[in-house]
Write a structure and sequence with these properties.
Layout: H1 10-32, H2 35-63, H3 67-95, H4 100-107, H5 109-124
C-alpha cells in the first residue's frame, strides 16, 4: 500500500520516519557496536524528535496569538527549549554512558528525514 505524502500528513510522516530511523540506529548501533552506541543514538534521536515537536507546538501557538504577544512568547519558548536541550546534552555528554558520535548521528534524524522526503517528492514530481 502506497502512502501519499502531502501537506496535511507531512508532519506525521516525518515523525514516523524519524522514529523508525531512531529504532533502526539504536538497535543497529547496539547489535553491531556496543550498548553505548545504541544509547547514544537513542538519546540523540529522542532529543531531536522532542525538540521538533516543541518547535511545531510553539509555532502553532504563536500563529494563533495577536502579533503583540507573539514576539515575547516566541522568544521565551526559544530560550526555554534551547536551555532544556543544553542541560540534557550536558548531562548526556558528561555521564560517559553514551557514544558522542552516535549522539550526533541521533541528533540528525529529523534533518535526514526531511532531506529524504524532499528528494522523494522531487523524484515523484519528475525533478
Amino acid at each position: 500500500m502506497m502512502i501519499t505524502i502531502n501537506e496535511d500528513n507531512l508532519f506525521a510522516v516525518i515523525i514516523k520516519g524519524s522514529l523508525g530511523l531512531v529504532v533502526f540506529l539504536t538497535l543497529g548501533g547496539w547489535a553491531l557496536f556496543s550498548l553505548r552506541v545504541g544509547l547514544g543514538a537513542l538519546a540523540g534521536g529522542t532529543i531531536a524528535i522532542v525538540n521538533f515537536l516543541l518547535i511545531r507546538n510553539a509555532l502553532q501557538r504563536i500563529l494563533g496569538q495577536p502579533s503583540a504577544n507573539a514576539s515575547g512568547y516566541a522568544q521565551l519558548r526559544f530560550v526555554a527549549r534551547l536551555s532544556l536541550a543544553a542541560v540534557l546534552l550536558y548531562f548526556i555528554i558528561t555521564s560517559g554512558w553514551f557514544s558522542l558520535a552516535a549522539l550526533f548521528v541521533g541528533l540528525s534524524v529529523i534533518v535526514v528525514n526531511i532531506i529524504a522526503f524532499s528528494l522523494y517528492s522531487a523524484m515523484r514530481a519528475g525533478g
